[in-house]
Predict the 3D structure of the following.
Amino acid sequence: MKKILFLATAFACTLAVKAQNDDAAKPAVPQQKVDDVIKMNVETHDFGKIKQGVPVTYDFVIKNISDKPVVVENTWASCGCTTPEKITEPILPGKTTKLKVAYNAAAVAPISKDVFIKIAGIDAAKSVHISGEVLSTEAYETYMKEKGEVPAPVKNEAAPAKPAAKNASTPSISPAPVKNNK
């Protein structure tokens, strides 16, 4: 009885080892890499110092360096404060497209965010990086003065629009004078 049990165990082990060796003997299909299919204009963009509450954007340029159309399955960021636009059209061979990445600049803090690009048929995603520093309004104005630049005034949406330039075909309308009853 011991001999039968020993032979059955040896047979099962031999089968298991053989099954593993058969998988190893098959030639591995080389997995295509993202860098074999697309090329980025840059992999990192530094926004520098930006003012809190003023969103910024950057367009990463993606070039298809393969001989087939490339489909971008998905784009996502490491944080909700960073938003990459979805690329909907395939990138034809030799052509480029732009990946617009927006950062909301809501919090005063250093910026260090990753954006990921998933290409159809490739397991690994490509990552690009944005960096910079968000400054408070006061700190930003101080920074700009030290740099020798005057910060652009923030548009006041409630302010009335400037009147259009006068030309010969546009009648001029002036407000009526206001009397002071004092």
